[in-house]
Amino acid sequence: MDAERLRAAREAVATRWPGFRPRFGVVLGSGWGAVAEALGPVDEMAAGEIPGWGRAGVEGHAGWLWRARIAGAEGLVFQGRRHWYEGEGWTPVAAPVYLLKALGAPLVLLTNAAGGLRPEWAPGTLMIVRDHINAMGANPLAGPHDPFWGDRFPDVSTLYDAALREGLRRAAPDDGPAPVEGVYLAVSGPTYETPAEVAAYRAWGADAVGMSTVPEALLAGAAGLRVAAL
User: Fold this and answer.
1) pLDDT over 60 at 150, yes or no
2) By the number of CB atoms within 10 A of the CB, which of 20, 39, 50, 190 ranks highest?
3) What angle do CA 96, 14, 31 make, to 5 degrees?
């Protein structure tokens, strides 16, 4: 990770919004971009204005950082995310979590669109992540240790905050299907899974598979943020 570029990202955001201390962060993954408009946008920055982050090279990821207000609390909403498979290293993947930590946010909600591994769950099922399996073959915390990210060997046994998971369950509308809880498995991509891989991941206990979220969750948990994922 390029610590200098990440510090420059913080300076860019702090210069745009002096003294701003976000109460939360939300990363909007594939299929979630339109949610930004419903989250009380106050102001925005283009991803290209933020060193180290930059606009995603993937269709469907708009590339905006929104300052948003929800229920009286202001936070940062990242409309679009960067992926390991884009080949630009961990810096753009880590940038949203770095900004949240550096600006004092206490928690982050990560979202994505994933492939379901449970035939009984219909497409569109909302899954609250209870745990994950990292099958990416890589970890953003590998390499020289930076104390910014906490301990060298962080504990991830309770990475996905139980109280936040309960809050997500309570927030689900009464007139729709209840959200489920499950295990998310992350692969590096950009290829989808073979039938043999799907069978293997089911046998491992995974309920959904995708190409994101786990790196940000690992970074956020190590840095001391409370983490939830959908």
Assistant:
1) yes
2) 50
3) 30
Q: pLDDT digit string (tens) for 171-193?
A: 988 887 889 999 999 999 999 99
Cα dist from 140 to 28, 136, 221, whole Å: 20, 10, 12
Query: What per-residue confidence (pLDDT) applies to 107?
Result: 98
CB-based contacts of 143, cutoff 8 Å, min separation 6: 1
Contact 9/95 with Cβ under 8 angstroms?
Answer: yes
SS3 readout for the chain: CCHHHHHHHHHHHHHHCCCCCCCCEEEECCCCHHHHHHCCEEEEEEHHHCCCCCCCCCCCCCCEEEEEEECCEEEEEEECCCCHHHCCCCHHHHHHHHHHHHHCCCEEEECCCCEECCCCCCCCCCEEEEEEEECCCCCCCCCCCCHHHCCCCCCCCCCECHHHHHHHHHHCCCCCCCCEEEEEEECCCCCCCCHHHHHHHHHHCCCEEECCCHHHHHHHHHCCCEEEEC
Q: Which residues are within 8 A (CB) of 22 and not within 5 positions of it... i.e. 6 or more apart?
A: 67, 74, 75, 76, 100, 103, 104, 105
CA atoms of 181 and 154, how far apart (whole Å): 24
Q: Which amino acid is at 26?
A: V
Structure tokens given for 203: 């046998």
For the ranges 28-32, 117-121, 154-158, the lowest mean pLDDT is seen at 28-32
Interatomic CA distance for residues 186 and 213, integer angstroms: 8
CB 228 within 8 A of CB 168: yes
